[in-house]
Design goal:
heterodimer, A: 577 residues, alpha+beta, 4-stranded mixed beta sheet, B: mainly alpha, MetI-like fold
């Protein structure tokens, strides 16, 4: 249904986008860059990034709001943007950030320490801001102080060597966004719509609807005036909802889109047959960029029979990760060996986990799994499904219907579970409902997600998401999407203790790998979630109008253009003609 | 038969031109057809044969083909039909003569299992809808009064509701539905027109002599409705049934193509949904969406032929003069 609706919308969207642009100001196609968004903008008039419902990857945090820092995935450096640097005391519980001089908001007001303090204080004071970034700030920061107009000091609740990395570097998707104090003062942050929005970025909002957002270059951008950076070349940036894979491919092939969300291998190959200008991260197989959010299947550990760790382990054993790789990904990714992303920097931790025997194997062991299910009292019925007291063993798996990557993975798992005797079915859910309600409120038996996402070069960020520190009752929002499965047993407590201790240790402490292995042992034992496969994002870029896209050769940073780090992509684009 | 043909043969040579003879012959045999068995008209025969063939494909196919191949991951991905090449320059294999889809399912197996399923939904939905329609239509037309008012208003209101809209909501709420459940849901929108049309027919029949006679001889209402009047409507009901099967299939396929049908049970609509969803058009995997679409087209043509044929049975004026 989404796709049909979307394909109908695309036509109208293109028409509206371009007629709209003609009316507003005539920007030629050669000066416009068009990005794909894979979701409907549910509440386009709202620009409050702290309230539930994701509304910023439509260009808001790629063009309008700028981050303090950007983590460079390729070099590992934290590169300064609105800030110029950071430092900490020896105990790493007090961090000082220095801001760049000469930054102004698009309405002319100066950007300074007051804005930072105001925004952080707002997150600290308002429990109702349950989105990931304000929730993380609230969990970590005890107080924030102004040293001078360009210097801010954060006092933390406990030592945290990753404070900047986690909160301000766009490590995964986004970072804590600084809001203009002069606009937000006196507003209720949980209901304020912040429209029209104001940012420091080189683009300002032209218009927005549920299926597209148009941003026009602000030639008075502070960065060009202060000599920080030249103005980006595109005069206009459009974020357009393409709908399904087919639409995405057609728009790219016909040069009506410059960067598309992930497609499957077959579609990418077909696009290449029809348009020589379509490129991806790698020139050759596997083409795809390994996204840091490894895919997994989460259990709601409060719902029978999945509150039984043995049953969860049985499901884990039934899942054949190789088959997911071969069918859902056509070989463009790898099975997950642990909860972590398999980047080089993570190898010591993953190796330690495997050496301790707490990893996950790629192959299935259906017989052992069936023995576990039978031990739990189930008998195999004549229809090939397990039953207990006359009721079939069922598994409803909620999956975000936004991408075939997600649904295809779950289709494979549904098949595997059914063959092993569990009556599984997929429950496809629209994107905003999935992230807005199903996941955070715990309204599922099982769900497909990537909620252990966080670690890139150190293990704590991912592990910290499954502690018992932030367990909300079912029906209330899990803060920051942490532990949405409400895993809360003695093992969770033991796990939490190790992870919390790890959190106070410096990055690179030699004792950490062994601790990671021990903590991961609890995950492997109780399986609050099943790590499935690594994520591979096959993102097609079109070089017809714009060059300078991020690739393995031109690797100024990763290619995730829906992340806050995409400022760098837009600044690197060059007009092709 | 022989008599007329002979006479045409005899008169034929006497006419000057050969063309006139041809016209004469067809006229003569056409005229004769009027007295032939109306159930043997060519449209009906063709339609039934095609439908039978499609059903046979499903019935015999289940025995000679491995239907386990309809499950995800049982074959290599995206192989073309035997004798063709896909974009990756892979040749089709005789093992999978109609090719495979993007999730590793054999297309022949999918069609063998999916086609009868799709027809079944249509038939069951239509059967339930028609039965309801017949019952309500006769009750309204024959009993009249309050019963008529209630039924008439209810069906008039229901007929204005666009079925697909409601069904989409229903199906999303139910999540994964069984084939039968889907048929029942669709049947909920299949009874209104038969009700109205049958009511109209019954209203006119109610005044005819044989009904009056039956009433006078003390036959019960049920007896008059279903034993005296209904047989007169049989050809019409058949035609209407077939038309409803077509509508039900269109509705079912519409829902399936939106991804709202049963998940692990193959249907033609579901195959098309998977194909669209996986970018089969741009990848030129024509067999994936093309074969089920072609089969649906053939099915609709067959149903249309049957419908036209039945029309001729129930309405002699439609037969060729």
């Amino acid at each position: 249904m989404n796709h049909l609706k979307a394909s109908l919308l695309v036509g109208t969207a293109m028409a509206v986008a371009f007629t709209g642009s003609v009316v507003a100001q005539d920007v030629p196609r050669e000066d416009t860059v068009i990005f794909d968004i894979d979701r409907t903008i549910r509440d386009p008039e709202n620009f409050n990034p702290f309230t539930p419902g994701v509304k910023r990857q439509h260009g808001a945090h790629q063009t309008m709001w700028e981050p303090l820092f950007i983590l460079n995935y390729e070099s590992g450096e934290i590169e300064p943007w609105l800030a110029t640097g950071f430092s900490s005391n020896d105990a790493q519980d007090e961090w000082t950030v220095t801001l760049r001089d000469g930054v102004t908001w698009s309405d002319g007001e100066a950007f300074n320490a007051d804005d930072v303090i105001f925004s952080v204080q707002m997150a600290l004071d308002n429990e109702s801001l349950s989105e990931r970034e304000p929730a993380t700030i609230r969990a970590q920061v005890a107080g924030v102080e102004k040293v001078d107009d360009l210097t801010v000091t954060f006092t933390l609740n406990s030592s945290n060597p990753r404070f900047i990395l986690e909160n301000f570097s766009n490590r995964i998707f986004g970072s804590f966004l600084i809001m203009p104090e002069h606009v937000w003062t006196g507003e209720d942050p949980s209901t304020f719509a912040f429209n029209p929005p104001v940012g420091t970025g080189p683009y300002t909002l032209n218009s927005i609807a549920t299926n597209r957002a148009i941003w026009d270059r602000n030639d008075d951008w502070w960065g060009a005036q202060s000599g920080f950076m030249d103005l980006p070349e595109p005069l206009r940036v459009i974020f357009l909802e393409s709908g399904g894979e087919e639409n995405r491919a057609q728009l790219m092939v016909s040069n009506q889109m410059d960067a598309a969300q992930a497609v499957t291998l077959g579609t990418f190959e077909a696009m290449g047959f029809q348009n020589d200008n379509i490129i991806a991260w790698f020139d050759d197989l596997p083409y795809a960029w390994p996204d840091p959010c490894a895919r997994q299947m989460e259990f709601n550990t409060t719902v029978a029979p999945w509150d039984n760790a043995d049953m969860r382990r049985a499901v884990e054993m039934i899942i054949d990760r190789n088959q997911i790789v071969n069918i859902a990904y056509e070989g463009t990714t790898q099975p997950s060996r642990s909860m972590f992303v398999q980047y080089g920097a993570m190898d010591p931790f993953i190796d330690a986990i495997e050496a301790a025997g707490h990893g996950f194997t790629a192959d299935a062991d259906v017989e052992a799994a069936q023995a576990i299910i039978e031990a739990a009292g189930y008998t195999l019925g004549s229809d090939g499904l397990y039953e207990l007291n006359g009721e079939d063993l069922t598994a409803n798996i909620h999956v975000n219907s936004a991408s075939p990557e997600y649904t295809r993975t779950i289709d494979v798992i549904v098949e595997q579970l059914n063959r092993a005797g569990i009556s599984a079915r997929a429950v496809p859910v629209e994107n905003s409902v999935f992230w807005g309600e199903v996941l955070p409120l715990g309204g599922y038996d099982m769900s497909y997600s990537w909620l252990s996402c966080g670690s890139v070069n150190e293990p704590w960020a991912s592990m910290n998401r499954y502690t018992n520190a932030t367990i909300a009752p079912i029906g209330e929002r899990a803060p920051g999407f942490n532990n949405t499965g409400r895993w809360n047993t003695d093992a969770t407590a033991a796990y939490t203790e190790i992870v919390q201790q790890m959190g106070t240790m410096a990055i690179g402490d030699p004792a950490i790998p062994a601790m990671v292995a021990e903590a991961h042992g609890y995950l492997a034992d109780e399986v609050p979630f099943v790590p499935l496969v690594q994520a591979a994002k096959l993102l097609p870029f079109n070089t017809t109008y714009w060059t300078g896209w991020p690739t393995a050769e031109n690797n100024y940073n990763h290619p995730a253009f829906w992340w806050g780090s995409a400022h760098q992509i837009i600044h690197n684009l060059e007009r092709a003609q | 038969m022989t008599d007329t043909t002979q006479s045409s043969n005899q008169t034929g040579p006497t006419v000057d031109s050969a063309a006139a003879g041809v016209v004469d012959t067809s006229m003569a045999s056409g005229r004769f057809n009027r007295f032939d068995n109306p159930w043997l008209n060519p449209k009906l025969i063709w339609g039934v044969c095609i439908l039978g063939g499609i059903l046979l494909l499903g019935v015999i196919g289940q025995f000679i083909w491995n239907t386990e191949l309809v499950f995800t991951g049982s074959t290599p991905l995206k192989l073309p039909p035997f004798g063709f090449e896909n974009l990756r320059r892979q040749e089709g294999l005789a093992e999978f003569p109609l090719g495979t889809d993007g999730a590793g399912r054999d297309l022949l197996a999918l069609l063998i299992v999916g086609t009868p399923n799709t027809l079944m939904i249509g038939a069951v939905a239509s059967l339930i809808g028609m039965s309801t329609g017949i019952f309500l239509g006769f009750s309204a037309g024959f009993i009249g009064g309050r019963v008529d008012d209630v039924i008439r208003i209810f069906s008039d209101v229901m007929i204005t509701i666009p079925p697909l809209l409601i069904l989409v909501v229903f199906q999303s709420a139910f999540g994964d539905v069984s084939l039968f459940m889907m048929a029942v849901l669709i049947a909920g929108f299949m009874w209104q027109s038969p009700t109205r049309l049958i009511r109209a027919q019954v209203l006119s029949m109610r005044e005819s002599g044989y009904v009056k006679m039956a009433q006078l001889s003390g036959a019960s209402t049920m007896h008059i409705m279903f034993r005296e009047m209904m047989p007169n409507l049989i050809p019409y009901l058949f035609g209407s049934f077939i038309a409803n099967v077509t509508t039900a299939i269109v509705t079912a396929v519409g829902l399936e193509v939106l991804g709202l049908g049963p998940q692990r049970i193959p249907t033609l609509g579901r195959i098309i949904y998977d194909a669209i969803n996986s970018g089969a058009l741009i990848q030129n995997l024509w067999w994936w969406w093309g074969l089920p679409t072609a089969l649906l087209a053939i099915m609709f043509i067959a149903l249309l032929l049957v419908n036209l044929g039945l029309d001729e049975v129930s309405n002699p004026r439609l037969r060729k003069m």
